[in-house]
Amino acid sequence: MAAGRKQRGLCAVQVARLRHHFCATLYVCDHVFDKSSEGTFSLPLLPPSLPKSPTIEEAFNQSTNATFPSNIQCIYTFVAGPGQRVKLEFDEFSLAGSSENCQIEYVDIYSELKSPDFNVLSSALAGRYCGSIAPQIRISLYNILVIVFHSRSHTQKRRFLFRGRYSFISDAKYRVGRPIDSQPCSFIVDSSTKERGELYSPTYPGSYPQNFFCSYLLRGRKGQRIHVQFPDFDVFFGGEHCPYDSVTIFDGPASSYPIIKKLCGLQQKVELYSFGHELLIHFNTTRPAKTDPRGFVMEYKFTSDFVNLIDLLDGQEGVTHIRGTECDLRVKSNRETTHYIKSPNYPNAYPVNTTCTYVIDGLQGEQHLEKAILKFESIAVINSEGIESTAPSSPDDITCPSAWVGVAITESNMKAVMSSTDESVFDYTLCERIPANSPLLGPYISEGPRMTVQFGSTNVPSDNLSPLGFKAQIDFKTDFGIDGEELGHSNECMFRFTGSAGFFNSPRYPANYPLDANCTYLIVGQPKQEILIYFEQFALANEENKKCADWVKIYDVYRDSSGKEDLVLQHQYCGGSFPGPVVSSFGVHEMRVIFNSDSDEAANGFKAFYLIRKSRAEDVPSKFDDKSSSTRCGGVIDASIVGVTGSITSPNFPVKYAKNEQCYWLIKARENHKILLRANEMEIEGEMKPSGIQCQNAVIRVNGEEYCGTELHPILPILSNNNTLRISFITNPEKVNGLQGFNFTWTEVKVVEEQHCSTEDLYLCTYSKLCISSTLRCNGDVNCGYGVVDDTDEQHCERKENSTDMTVLIAGMVCALMFTALVLFFCFVFKKKLERKKKSKRHSESARRQREPYRQQKPLHRAHAGEYVKLNFP
């Protein structure tokens, strides 16, 4: 800068030498540093003519008279020699303002200059600084670096505004290879020149230039791979995807190849491997960061000693290399496919200090969910000498200090394996030479769609017998997420349950079940056992335009002596409903549940529990007990014995019913008669909606239909199909809210023509045309209502009602008269007794006054009745 190089005006600085009592005037502002390869700089800058003495510097530093004129500009130009760069380090920095507001005093740094003669307005500014925070280390891009001090103030200074050190360093470490198109930091690094080295960002460790681009192409020989790692990495972090400054690493010679990784921010332990023999690195910068990021240093290595990925992949479809790793593979299912994995160089000796991770991924989506099944064909992973190379009896006895095969199945262990190989935790760890028939070879089954396997070695195997390492087969099978014994093919949803208790669920529960699914659940007990099924959750798709598109059906399974089965449907449930507890029919010890979904909509599905327990002694208790409080209750009610009407109630009614209730009633009418059932009271948890009946914890079933809730209006009178009516009441075996229960009335009726219901002992209901016993007329219960409102059996009952009312009235009057007479009698007796008591008291007082001769000086004790005086009353 020509104008800046002139000594125009030159600021005058007064330095008071306190100890020697003299004052010197200094005239140095602009300065060029090009004589010495290292030195110091400061503002103000003491002139070369002044002897260098700590006393003088101390005098200036402590002076209270050192002042600067306003509106000054000082330029320090550092010029290094050819093949050199300028390095600046600030030791002190104290200017007015702050990093957010550099208006009064500031320092501008220009580090990308090719010539000392530059234009301030057109040259790239590397950074502007003020306040008390000094710039970080600065290294020039070429051999020129300029700092410009600006000040608009006129204030006294007690210390140096800034000072630091400079040095001229070699730029050889920044020229890492053959330049590309004369770009300042674009090079080709060829393994034929150097197989190992370091690569620095343009001005590392100083702040890197802004709006800059660098390209490094690392090229090895065929058969070689490249390993790079970053001991230090500091690039401005602008967001998760590095939208501003970034280092991008391509797995090939051009930017059209796949990206291994894109880096920014502060990084530690970044280590990458190429797939082939070429690697391209791009370094892009945009605006300068206030934190002065220093860039990066990268170590690289070309070698053919790394794992041969072509051999490890073995040309399998669905098996791919995880980019950036030495030998990590991803095995991905193509829907129920089979794949193989092996250790490097198998069956020959595996390499030392190598860790390979195999990520095994089954399908996971709305329609597909798989699990992985791992089975080892052979394992011979030998530890260091001195350790017996025989297979342990169980996984718990295995210790593998120098070579291992680890299997991670749980999610937490898989995360640990993928995040850090140094702290990996496995569900199973295997090593040594395992025999072919050992259960340690598997199978190992994933808990979800993913599993990880890791092979690691740190020492040369002491056993040279082939094969060495491992080889394993991976089978992907459809995972329905159902516990139970699998039946049929791998993609067939059929399971058997034989335990005394357990649960089953829709596929993939609690996630949505897949479309077009069909699952069968076989629950198998033993003879003289019964099965109870109850649901914890039930949510099937309820489509408006379709009736029962998705459904669950529950069957009783009957088998004859030859084993031939016969399925009898017990219940069917659709969307909008919630099944109540279900018990197998009497004598049935096997049930089948079938779930089916269509191709339109899906929902969460269901989860159900089952209990296999001792069967009840009778289908319906032969003896009816209407006061029963047992969990097994009910009975047979014969109308020919107990009469033409009656009632049944839940256990303990109207007190709360309990959990695990199981009650059965069978009402039997005479031949050619039917049973009419009517609900009088009902408080059963659940509700009956137009969309479906939801009786989760307690349910009443009448001839297969379910009832619950607290509203009576949905329950119309029920007429049996024949002369019997079956009723059951079942509650959840685990928990119930326990409401009052129910009270139902039953009536024996006959459906006949009018002429057959005209005798005196029968009554024909006017509207329902039911024929009932005439004894039911005017008994206080409506016995006619069915299909229509018909209470004619309780109408025209006034005469009987009047007669009854008169009888009650007369009886009440008689009772009142008797009570009145009794009260009068007791009053008379009490009056006569009171009169006798008063008369006796007067006679007693008269006798005592006559026998007292004189007043005694000492009082005598009070006479007791019968002791001194005996009174006789007529």
UniProtKB/TrEMBL annotation:
PROSITE patterns: CUB. Keywords: Disulfide bond, Membrane, Transmembrane, Transmembrane helix. GO terms for cellular component: plasma membrane. The keyword Membrane applies. It holds the Pfam family CUB. The chain crosses the membrane at residues 806-830. Residues 840-866 are annotated as: Disordered. Residues 843-855 have a biased composition (Basic and acidic residues). PANTHER family: CUB DOMAIN-CONTAINING PROTEIN, CUBILIN. This is CUB domain-containing protein. It comes from Diploscapter pachys.
